[in-house]
Design goal:
The complex is a heterodimer of chains A (271) and B (358). With 271 residues, chain A is mainly alpha-helical. Chain A has 13 helices and no strands. The two termini of chain A are 35 Å apart. Chain B has 2 domains: 232 residues, P-loop containing nucleotide triphosphate hydrolases (Rossmann fold, 3-Layer(aba) Sandwich), CATH 3.40.50.300; 120 residues, Nucleic acid-binding proteins (OB fold (Dihydrolipoamide Acetyltransferase, E2P), Beta Barrel), CATH 2.40.50. In chain B, 23% of the residues lie in helices and 37% in strands. A 6-stranded mixed β-sheet of chain B has the order 6-7-8-3-9-10, sandwiched between helices. Chain B has a 5-stranded antiparallel β-sheet with strand order 13-12-11-14-20. In chain B, a hairpin with a 2-residue loop joins β9 and β10. In chain B, α2 packs across α3, α2 packs parallel to α4 and α3 packs across α4. The model of chain B has no long low-confidence stretch (mean pLDDT 90). The chains are: A mainly alpha (271), B alpha+beta (358). At the A-B interface, α8 and α9 of A face β6 and α2 of B.
């Protein structure tokens, strides 16, 4: 093989950076791998390393209280919140990226603020508000709470995709005879697709496993998956939640892998 | 018949006046280049014609019809953007067919036209590719086909060759000119590249500070500009200060550096007035020092020579320290004449001497 001068020699700096990157990767993956190993433990208690392997805790998942119903509620809330927030975020991000208006910086900061606010504080504020207006502990109040939680994500990803979009494209469309609406529908919206999909996925995932906000907004039959899993953990010591978590990680990873393959969303959000 | 008229166009953007009374009339099928430094208003003029900017005053007429109040999508204008602005999520054929779809042409008709125009720019073989996979030159042709397939009344080109490399530019320049003539479409090219403007356009309008300073055929504008800043902007030039030393019925005698003296057939100058005299470097020739030449000449010494391939640039310094720039064919020089420090006489071709008010 011909060696050319194109590839520079690996420096000590490169090696250190590479080493740190591996370290970070291991640090991030370690809990997940540990959970997976624990979930396969045959014994009744969480122990490491496991003495014998078995899938029996996976079959015990059904015994988590109301796991089916709460997962369905979580899914319906996450799906609705993600859909509504992504739709609202289209309008908001277009306004922010296209127009100059007073209070624009404030509005942007406000819409993105839920990411930085302590969730417990948001939860307490929300439940006080819902009690005040007499709408507490309903599916709708839970949905609104989750919308507050996740709206910032699609706004961020959509703003990114609008910033990356070539502003000439829409002008090219209108100069070719497209009305404003047609140009938006046939050119702008397709350009926002990666932002739409990654924003939707972020919103869905953040809502789906949120605990600190949900815990204030649920009561009785209205309960979400993370709450039921946490309740199970606080009352039992067996590895069932580990089995559930492992299953959960696998399903989510498959969804993200598919979305990344199809739409390159992860590489897109990093840009 | 007039293809496009701009009448007293005035544009303010963000409280700043960008265009001052821009007037231009372009014949059907004519190709005009708007040339000027960046910020001179040429792009604003283009965007006003396309309809993206509504002028605060003035009228835009396409084929005699005022369209100043029409939105861009209701003017039949084909626009090729500097960055081509191809739709990245559509194939080449879908890009070219976009304008036809917006005009609700039947699928079979669209397909035929797309095929025809892609063939015209020799790109029919890439019709199913995505724009990102094309080379710069190919992208530009797709953008051109997309703008032309709608049979626009006006074709607007924004820095059409700016993003291409040297060799491709030369090739596209020829192709673009042939295509424009073949289709007979009224064309406006916006560019800051003089070579592009001079080689592509039938007429060139030089813009400075939001105004059209001078408009004319490339050759008249280059050889006989009426304004000193146009002369200065276009190509390279020698501009030097002279004094009117004699006024007679035959014209005025001007004298300047290096013993320069000539009689020019002009009457609009007064005795002792300071004037600027300009001449292109290629209208200067170098001769061995000859005394008492009746021609307009300057004597000096060779200061420096710069070899530029097809041309040799010679800098000549007069005794009063004025530098003249002459562009001569390297073959026309004998070795001795271009040696640094050699005393020579610089002959100015009288026909090409321009004189401006100082």
């Amino acid at each position: 093989m011909q060696t050319s001068s194109a590839a520079p020699a690996t420096t000590l700096f490169d090696r250190i950076v590479g080493f740190l990157a591996w370290l970070a990767l291991i640090f991030l993956l370690f809990p997940v791998v540990l959970t997976a190993i624990v979930s396969l433990n045959d014994s009744f208690f969480i122990e490491f390393p496991p003495k014998a392997l078995s899938f029996k805790w996976y079959f015990n998942i059904v015994n988590i209280h109301a796991i089916g119903r709460s997962t369905l509620i979580s899914a319906s809330i996450a799906l609705s919140a993600a859909l509504l927030c992504t739709t609202l975020a289209i309008a908001a991000s277009l306004a922010i990226s296209r127009y100059q208006f007073s209070g624009k910086a404030f509005l942007t900061a406000f819409l993105l603020s839920p990411i930085t606010m302590p969730m417990v504080a948001v939860g307490i504020a929300l439940i006080q508000f819902f009690i005040m207006i007499g709408a507490a502990f309903t599916w709708y109040s839970l949905l609104i709470g989750h919308m507050v939680l996740v709206i910032a994500y699609p706004i961020r990803t959509l703003l990114a995709s609008l910033t990356l979009m070539n502003p000439s494209l829409e002008e090219a469309a209108t100069s070719l005879g497209a009305s404003k609406f047609k140009a938006f529908w046939t050119v702008t919206l397709p350009q926002m697709k990666p932002g739409l999909i990654s924003g939707f996925l972020f919103a869905f995932l953040i809502s789906f496993d949120n605990y600190p906000i949900s815990v204030f907004l649920v009561r009785g039959g209205l309960s979400t998956m993370p709450i039921e899993v946490f309740n199970y953990i606080s009352q039992n010591l067996d590895p069932t939640p580990a089995a559930f978590s492992t299953l959960y990680v696998i399903v989510i990873s498959l969804i993200i892998a598919y979305a990344e393959r199809r739409y390159r969303i992860v590489s897109y959000s990093i840009q | 018949m007039s293809g496009l008229e701009l009448e007293d166009i005035n544009v303010w953007l963000n409280g700043q006046k960008i265009l001052h009374d821009v007037n231009i009339s372009i014949a059907k099928g004519e190709c005009v280049a708007l040339l000027g430094p960046s910020g001179c208003g040429k792009t604003t003029t283009l965007r006003t014609i396309a309809g993206f900017i509504h002028p605060q005053a003035g009228d835009v007429r396409i084929s005699g019809q005022s369209c100043v109040d029409l939105p861009p999508n209701r003017r039949n204008v084909g626009l090729v953007f500097q960055d081509y602005a191809l739709f990245p999520h559509m194939t080449v054929a879908q890009n070219v067919g976009y304008g036809l779809r917006m005009r609700k042409r039947s699928d079979s008709e669209s397909e035929k036209l797309v095929h025809q125009f892609l063939e015209m720019v020799q790109l029919d073989h890439v019709k199913d590719r995505m724009p990102q996979s094309l080379s710069g030159g190919q992208r530009q042709r797709v953008a051109l086909a997309r703008a032309l397939v709608i049979k626009p009344d006006i074709l607007l080109l924004d820095e059409p060759l700016g993003a291409l490399d040297r060799k491709l530019r030369d090739q596209m320049q020829v192709e673009l000119k042939q295509l424009q003539k073949q289709l007979g479409v009224t064309t406006i090219i916006v560019t800051h590249d003089q070579e592009e403007a001079l080689s592509l356009a039938d007429r060139v309008a030089v813009m400075f500070g939001g105004k059209i300073r001078e408009i004319g055929t490339p050759q008249s504008l280059y050889d006989r500009p009426k304004h000193r800043d146009v002369m200065d902007f276009l190509g390279s030039s020698n501009l030097f200060r002279c004094t009117v030393t004699h006024v007679s019925e035959d014209g005025v005698t001007v004298s300047g550096p290096g013993g320069f003296q000539t009689v020019l057939n002009r009457t609009d100058f007064q005795l002792n007035q300071n004037v600027l005299v300009g001449i292109r470097p290629e209208h200067l020739s170098i001769e061995r020092a000859v005394a008492d030449s009746p021609r307009a000449s300057v004597s000096g010494t060779v200061h420096e020579t710069v070899y530029k391939g097809s041309l040799m640039e010679v800098l000549i310094k007069t005794t009063d320290d004025h530098i003249f720039r002459a562009a001569v064919s390297p073959r026309s020089l004998t070795h001795g004449q271009i040696e640094s420090g050699a005393a020579i006489s610089l002959v100015l071709e009288k026909d090409f001497i321009q004189i401006f008010q100082d």
